[in-house]
Write a structure and sequence with these properties.
single chain; about 230 residues; Ribosomal Protein L25, Chain P; 2 domains; seven-stranded parallel beta sheet; four-stranded antiparallel beta sheet; 7 helices; binds S-adenosylmethionine
């Protein structure tokens, strides 16, 4: 369970109502039962349930069992897509170990409205479920050109479905984190956007094969390749 508090032996920490419901109502746990907790800073701790009544619960950290892992320096930039696809992408990207997620607004974006808090909550739940000790940061949506203008030079791989780019697996050979993976909107990047991307020295446009993937599929497929070849 993710707790947003310092973890210290014997210091009782309240869980959120949602976590309390999950522990009591779904997992049927009760006072005295063991749980694992983390906060993204102090590693993983064995803890026990101190109190649990309906949606109120406190947890008691007992001993550290796994040192903190550094946050992965890998980023997903993705044009905002429909809510369900966005949710799915945030969950899968977290399972695949992404360090941060930033929705970007491109010329053919269908929306610039992204519920950042909802995505952050999904990322937190996915981090709890998959046993990582960091929760990806979810950044506010930003226009793609502004992201590119303020970029720090980290290699940025951009998915191009037009069969004009080398395979991602080839470009990612020898790459090590930090890196970023960029996926366009349902309508794809406009020609001018692709040209602008290619003008930037830190960008490589890459292909995931001859078929046109949905944006969420491209996001997750690209991350799987990058995680396998250049993971953090
Ligand atoms: N405009 C396209 C069309 O309708 O022909 C579709 C764009 S696709 C649904 C959305 C995004 O996914 C693209 O901008 C690209 O970043 C990524 N993508 C999809 N298929 C890809 C592929 N085969 N290789 C690399 N990227 C891909």
């Amino acid at each position: 369970l993710y707790l947003d508090q310092p973890l210290e032996e014997g210091r009782e920490i309240p869980a959120t109502p949602g976590q309390a419901h999950h522990l009591g109502g779904v997992l049927r746990r009760g006072p005295g039962d063991a749980v694992l907790v983390f906060n993204g800073r102090d590693g993983e701790w064995a803890a026990s349930i101190a109190t649990l009544r309906k949606d109120r619960c406190t947890l008691l950290p007992e001993r550290p069992i796994r040192p903190q892992e550094p946050p992965p320096d890998t980023r997903l930039l993705v044009a905002a897509v429909k809510r369900d696809a966005m949710d799915w992408m945030a969950e899968k990207a977290t399972e695949l170990g992404i360090g941060s997620i930033r929705p970007v607004v491109t010329r053919r974006s269908i929306t610039d409205r992204v519920n950042q808090a909802r995505l952050a909550a999904i990322a937190q739940e996915a981090a709890e479920q998959c046993g990582r000790l960091t929760v990806p940061a979810v950044a506010p949506a930003m226009p793609l050109h502004a992201v590119l203008d303020g970029w720090d030079g980290t290699p940025l791989l951009a998915g191009d479905e037009r069969r004009e780019s080398p395979p991602l697996a080839q470009v990612a050979q020898g790459l090590r984190a930090p890196w970023a993976w960029l996926v366009g909107p349902e309508g794809g990047f406009e020609r001018a956007e692709l040209d602008d991307l290619r003008r930037r020295a830190f960008v490589s446009t890459v292909s995931l094969g001859p078929r046109i993937l949905r944006a969420e599929t491209a996001a997750v497929a690209g991350l799987a390749v990058l995680q396998a070849l250049a993971g953090d």
